[in-house]
Automatic annotation (TrEMBL), chain A:
Alphabetical list of Pfam families matching this protein: ThiS
CDD domains named among the record's database cross-references: Ubl_MoaD (cd00754)
Transmembrane stretches, start-end: none
Organism: Methanoregula formicica (strain DSM 22288 / NBRC 105244 / SMSP)
InterPro entries in alphabetical order: Beta-grasp_dom_sf (IPR012675), MoaD_arc-typ (IPR010038), Mopterin_synth/thiamin_S_b (IPR016155), Sulfur_Carrier/Prot_Modifier (IPR052045), ThiS/MoaD-like (IPR003749)
Protein name: MoaD family protein
Length: 92, 140
């Protein structure tokens, strides 16, 4: 299966965006984000704390719908998913 | 009504004319502008599909709550110079209290929930503008 990861703002600068990955069946959303983020130490540290948990301000979306970071460890990704990871919005 | 995330600037005069629907007694324009905070330029990016959907949702809520007749929201992205337009909100209503209140509601909601980010570019590099609303905000 294929899943697209989209990082925005500072996370995009550190990790890139529109990253297509091919996780195995049953991969958890949190594990997938962590695996991709680990390619850059600063990128990982921007999103995850020292215990490997999502930092409090990180916002996650799956197929354009908000997912609580606390639940990302129990949600499995499926083929065609678009996962977005971003810091607090700052438009206007 | 227009809800867009785009690089191009906007013809504000044309938007104001289009906002004059039957029954309009007031049009309020909000124009957010790149301020000269000792920066060279500002760079904006958006999760465009989600941003536009969220703008529409905010506009629908504002129309109901403040009896607005028309709403346009255009948020620009890309590199903008000091003095350029960032965000245009045009609302019309029968009376000025609703037009002012509706416009104010829309900008405050945009700041809470529309996925757009700004980076201030300076001679020494750049800095991301911190979001005012962290985890647990009313986003989406």
């Amino acid at each position: 299966m294929k899943v697209t990861l989209r990082f925005f703002a500072r996370f995009r600068e550190l990790l890139g965006t529109d990253i297509i990955v091919e996780p195995h069946d049953g991969t958890r959303l949190a594990d997938l984000v962590a695996e991709v983020a680990q390619k850059n130490t600063d990128g990982y540290a921007a999103i995850f704390d020292e215990q490997g948990a999502f930092r409090e301000f990180v916002i996650l979306m799956r197929n354009k719908k908000r997912v609580e970071t606390a639940e990302a460890g129990t949600i499995t990704v499926t083929d065609g998913d678009e996962i977005a990871v971003f810091p607090p919005v700052a438009g206007g | 009504m227009v809800f867009r995330v785009q690089k191009e600037d906007v013809d504000i005069g044309a938007l104001i004319e289009a906002a004059k629907r039957p029954g309009t007694g007031a049009v309020v324009l909000f124009d957010g502008i790149v301020r000269d905070d000792d920066i060279t330029e500002m760079e904006l990016e958006a999760y465009a599909e989600v941003a536009v959907a969220e703008m529409e949702k905010i506009a629908t809520a504002a129309m109901e709550q403040f009896r607005l007749l028309h709403v346009d929201i255009i948020h620009r992205i890309g590199r903008l110079a000091v003095g350029e337009n960032i965000l245009i909100i045009v609302v019309s209503a029968g009376h000025r209290p609703d037009a002012y209140a509706g416009s104010r509601y829309i900008i405050e909601e945009i700041k809470k929930s529309v996925p757009v980010w700004k980076k201030e570019l300076t001679k020494d590099g750049g800095r991301w503008v911190p979001g005012e609303h962290g985890h647990g905000s009313a986003i989406l």
